[in-house]
Specification:
single chain, five-stranded mixed beta sheet, about 35% strand, two-stranded antiparallel ribbon, alpha+beta, globular
Length: about 110
Protein backbone atom coordinates (compact mmCIF):
# COMPACT_ATOMS: atom_id res chain seq x y z
CA UNK A 1 0.00 0.00 0.00
CA UNK A 2 2.76 2.46 0.98
CA UNK A 3 4.72 1.58 -2.15
CA UNK A 4 1.64 2.32 -4.23
CA UNK A 5 0.61 5.60 -2.54
CA UNK A 6 3.99 6.86 -1.36
CA UNK A 7 4.49 9.41 1.42
CA UNK A 8 2.62 12.70 1.66
CA UNK A 9 -1.02 11.59 1.60
CA UNK A 10 -3.62 12.47 4.22
CA UNK A 11 -3.94 10.21 7.25
CA UNK A 12 -7.54 9.47 6.28
CA UNK A 13 -6.35 8.20 2.89
CA UNK A 14 -3.89 5.82 4.50
CA UNK A 15 -6.51 4.72 7.05
CA UNK A 16 -9.09 3.88 4.39
CA UNK A 17 -6.58 2.05 2.22
CA UNK A 18 -5.11 0.20 5.21
CA UNK A 19 -8.57 -0.94 6.30
CA UNK A 20 -9.22 -2.18 2.77
CA UNK A 21 -5.89 -4.00 2.68
CA UNK A 22 -6.38 -5.69 6.06
CA UNK A 23 -9.98 -6.73 5.44
CA UNK A 24 -9.01 -8.12 2.04
CA UNK A 25 -6.53 -10.32 3.91
CA UNK A 26 -9.33 -11.59 6.16
CA UNK A 27 -8.63 -9.56 9.28
CA UNK A 28 -11.33 -7.98 11.43
CA UNK A 29 -10.72 -4.22 11.55
CA UNK A 30 -12.64 -1.51 13.41
CA UNK A 31 -11.98 2.02 12.21
CA UNK A 32 -12.45 5.17 14.30
CA UNK A 33 -13.56 3.07 17.28
CA UNK A 34 -14.66 5.29 20.19
CA UNK A 35 -13.16 4.62 23.60
CA UNK A 36 -14.63 6.11 26.75
CA UNK A 37 -12.83 7.44 29.81
CA UNK A 38 -13.97 6.01 33.13
CA UNK A 39 -13.64 8.64 35.83
CA UNK A 40 -14.82 7.87 39.37
CA UNK A 41 -16.89 4.93 38.06
CA UNK A 42 -18.61 7.17 35.49
CA UNK A 43 -18.18 6.37 31.80
CA UNK A 44 -17.49 9.59 29.89
CA UNK A 45 -17.47 9.92 26.13
CA UNK A 46 -14.55 12.31 25.66
CA UNK A 47 -14.06 12.00 21.95
CA UNK A 48 -11.15 9.53 21.98
CA UNK A 49 -11.17 7.33 18.89
CA UNK A 50 -8.79 4.57 17.94
CA UNK A 51 -7.68 4.96 14.34
CA UNK A 52 -7.81 1.18 13.97
CA UNK A 53 -8.40 -1.82 16.18
CA UNK A 54 -7.22 -4.99 14.44
CA UNK A 55 -8.63 -8.36 15.49
CA UNK A 56 -9.85 -6.75 18.73
CA UNK A 57 -6.25 -6.94 19.93
CA UNK A 58 -3.93 -4.41 18.28
CA UNK A 59 -4.40 -0.66 18.59
CA UNK A 60 -3.06 1.15 15.52
CA UNK A 61 -2.45 4.89 15.48
CA UNK A 62 -1.76 6.26 12.01
CA UNK A 63 0.19 9.41 11.25
CA UNK A 64 1.44 11.24 8.21
CA UNK A 65 3.84 13.69 9.80
CA UNK A 66 7.38 14.88 9.19
CA UNK A 67 8.55 13.38 12.48
CA UNK A 68 6.85 11.41 15.23
CA UNK A 69 6.64 13.53 18.38
CA UNK A 70 6.51 12.50 22.02
CA UNK A 71 2.82 13.44 22.07
CA UNK A 72 2.10 10.84 19.36
CA UNK A 73 3.77 8.15 21.46
CA UNK A 74 1.83 9.32 24.52
CA UNK A 75 -1.39 9.06 22.53
CA UNK A 76 -0.74 5.41 21.71
CA UNK A 77 0.04 4.60 25.34
CA UNK A 78 -3.10 6.44 26.49
CA UNK A 79 -5.24 4.55 24.00
CA UNK A 80 -3.76 1.25 25.13
CA UNK A 81 -4.49 2.06 28.76
CA UNK A 82 -8.04 3.30 28.12
CA UNK A 83 -8.96 0.43 25.80
CA UNK A 84 -7.34 -2.25 28.01
CA UNK A 85 -5.30 -3.62 25.11
CA UNK A 86 -1.63 -4.51 25.43
CA UNK A 87 -0.20 -4.13 21.91
CA UNK A 88 -0.07 -0.94 19.87
CA UNK A 89 1.48 0.28 16.67
CA UNK A 90 2.29 3.84 15.72
CA UNK A 91 2.70 4.01 11.96
CA UNK A 92 3.97 7.16 10.28
CA UNK A 93 3.37 6.93 6.54
CA UNK A 94 5.34 10.09 5.74
CA UNK A 95 8.63 8.23 5.35
CA UNK A 96 10.49 6.93 2.30
CA UNK A 97 10.54 3.33 3.57
CA UNK A 98 7.56 2.27 5.69
CA UNK A 99 9.55 0.07 8.09
CA UNK A 100 11.26 3.27 9.27
CA UNK A 101 7.87 4.68 10.28
CA UNK A 102 6.64 1.76 12.41
CA UNK A 103 6.94 1.70 16.21
CA UNK A 104 5.57 -1.07 18.44
CA UNK A 105 4.37 -0.65 22.01
CA UNK A 106 3.61 -3.37 24.54
CA UNK A 107 2.27 -2.58 27.98
Amino acid sequence: MHRHLGPGQLESTYRNCFVQELTTRGLNVASEKPIPVVYKNVKLECGFRLDLLVEDAIVVELKSVEAVAVVHEATVLTYLRLSHHRIGLLINFNVAVLKDGVRRYII
